[in-house]
Amino acid sequence: MVGLNSYYVTLTSIGLSDPFNCKDLQRPFTSRHAVFDFSTIMSYFPSDIMLRLTEFFPDGFYNLTKGVYEVPCSHLTHDGSVDFYFEEFHIGVPMRDFILEVDGSCYLGAVRNRDLGSDEAILGLSFLRAAYSKLP
């Protein structure tokens, strides 16, 4: 059986740019390996990164039944972005791409990595849609 190769990048921090509320925040953490995965809709983060991300959305809450972080759909109309920093390079994912609307409810395009032994981030389509549009 042939193994699959994984190509990692170093994720150093996340941020939030919200010109509507005059916010430009960045939350550093211990650098982590991140892998791009076009086969997943959501992005998966270790608990500490997920905690920093949810701090940007104090009006949201963890929906225990669905296992996702629910936010008001009004975020879809903000011009802001969730920003991902890879050492000196960064990619801003527009709110309308990072927040997913399903049946009238809105959710962050990220969840906590269920593999408690994993310290890696998986950047899925909620991130990759913006990444592809930023490439030269």
What is the secondary structure topology, with strand pairs?
Layout: E1 8-18, E2 23-36, E3 43-45, H1 47-55, E4 61-63, E5 68-71, E6 81-86, E7 89-94, H2 95-98, E8 99-102, E9 105-108, E10 110-112, E11 121-123, H3 125-134
List keywords for this structure.
single chain, 3 helices, alpha+beta, 4-stranded antiparallel beta sheet, Cathepsin D, subunit A, domain 1
Tell me, briefly, the overall form.
Answer: globular
Average pLDDT taken over every residue:
83
Counting copies of identical and different chains, the oligomeric state is: single chain
Strand order of the largest sheet: 7-6-1-2-11
CATH topology: Cathepsin D, subunit A, domain 1
How many separate domains make up the residues?
A: 1
Low-confidence stretches: none
Kindly provide the radius of gyration, computed on alpha-carbon positions and rounded to a whole number of angstroms: 14 Å
Count of strand segments: 11
- Within CATH, the superfamily carries the name Acid Proteases
**Helix content estimate:** 10-25%
Share of β-strand residues: 35-45%
Derived structural class: alpha+beta
The end-to-end distance, rounded to whole angstroms, is: 36 Å
* Biggest sheet descriptor: 5 strands, mixed
Secondary-structure element series: EEEHEEEEHEEEEH
Helical element count? 3
Describe this structure in words.
- Helix content is 17%, strand content 45%.
- It has 136 residues and is of the alpha+beta class.
- The chain has a single domain, classed as Cathepsin D, subunit A, domain 1, CATH 2.40.70.10.
- The strands form three sheets. Strands 7-6-1-2-11 form a five-stranded mixed beta sheet. Strands 4-5-9-8 form a four-stranded antiparallel beta sheet.
- A hairpin with a 4-residue loop joins strand 4 and strand 5.
- The relative contact order is 0.25.
